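Example record used in the benchmark description.
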Amino acid sequence: GTFTLRLLQTSTFQNTSFVDTEGLGLLEDIELGSLDKHTWTIHFYQPWVRPALPRSDWDTIQEMIKIYLQKFNHLINDGAMQKDVPYPFVVQCIAGCEIFPNRTSQAFASVGYNGQDFLSLNVDNATWLLSQDTNVSRYVQAILQNYTTFSELVEVLFNDTCVDDMEMLLHYGKAALERQ
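Model output (structure tokens):
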């Protein structure tokens, strides 16, 4: 069948110095793990998740999450100050990949702001598309578009890494998925 791996992030920006971030990983609707909101480390929920990938891969993933969140928080706070966005506000991100029965796959990434669609990534050409045409969304789009290494990294992560990792998770989580 078709399987989807999703990473969900909810960041509540209370003010310029306090951001509360929650993260959740899902394979279909099975919760794989979450992010510790204080240390940004991964808590595994299923016994088969950690063994699905080598420890060094998990270490890399965890390190990348920390770097990403630092840069993300900095970028959003900068934008909020530049564009006089009132605090508090909430930013939600969803990213992941889907594997189809014919072994093809499709990656996806999108951003929401205060519960509204905001931006989405066209993973085929690594361009960010506006979901709403506002001063702020155009500003963020321009920053992300100029930040090509980030868009390319997202593209590689979700087109290649995501699919490889999902295949391992599907293999290790087969029994749990069949119970769905």
